[in-house]
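Researcher: Next entry in the queue.
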Amino acid sequence: MQRIAWDQFFLAQSHLISSRSTCTRLMVGATIVRDKRIIAGGYNGSIAGGDHCDEEGCYVVEGHCIRTIHAEMNAILQCAKFGASTDNAEMYVTHFPCIACCKSIIQAGIKAVYYAKDYKNHPYAMELFERADVVIKKIPFDEHVLNNAAQIEQSVIQTVQEVLQQEEVPASTIAHLEDQLRQQFLK
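Model: Structure for this entry, 187 residues:
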């Protein structure tokens, strides 16, 4: 079975972390990584012990909810709280960071940001990242990695292939059945 690629692994972590979000407008997750090791994760939500948007509603001022702390900031603050250096780390985030998070990412010494989805990508954030020599790259996230469906699919196909080969079924028939199985998994 093929191992998951590092970027998909860390993006999967960010997507899983985002499921803890209490924001009703957009669920975001961020994972900070150094030397292929996760050092922190964060999701957007209110301060610890505070009212949550999913319970009390958003507190919107000038088009922005001021009740929440962004996922990127929560991950950086987790590092500060527990004494983990973010210098030369990488961040994997579900959505493109806002300008305030962009500035915090730069100040934290994070050298690369990988994001899965565009979200109000501001040209000034891109300019700041470029000036600070922070790598910024969109990496589409493969949703299959959050569930075992792809692994189960491959395992079933491999088992069927082995059984059919033992029964000396012609290779062309096996290939045809494999295609049919893959189509069934797509439904």
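Model: The radius of gyration is 21 Å.
Researcher: Noted, moving on.
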